[in-house]
Predict the structure.
Amino acid sequence: MISDSSIKWIENLAEQEGLILAGKLPNLDISRTREEVLAVSTTLFMREVRTQWLSLSKLFNSRMKEPSLCISWGEMADRPDNFFLERNSVRLVISSSRSGSIQIKCEKPSLDTSSRISTVFSGVLEARFSSFDEVTWHFLEKPITVDQFSRYYLTEFLQSSRAFDRLF
């Protein structure tokens, strides 16, 4: 199977050949090409995370006997690739406001009567170019896969969103 980054790369080469054939100057701006690769990589990574988290949430929910323990999820209005999970008033938001960076933030309402929101945890994944301009994703300076990212943060979210009043 050909990767999406390889497809984008060959499409770009074909486009350059077409411009040369038409007597126009090709766009050889390397930084633009890298930015395009970064934008596509960010979109693809977000979609892969979203697909996996939706599947894992459905699997988790299918094992829950009480509906109030289930995970709900939704899209962010500003960007369709951004999404959130919710359980017991705790919200986990996964978003990308710029190419090459994915933010994760878990929030819950304060215990007092104010309408303040407190951050339970947060993190940032960053894209880096490796050999041959391949993009790899990093968390705390270490390479990370979608599976690793999903397992770690879904565990943190589920632990943070437990309804402790039901445990006693």
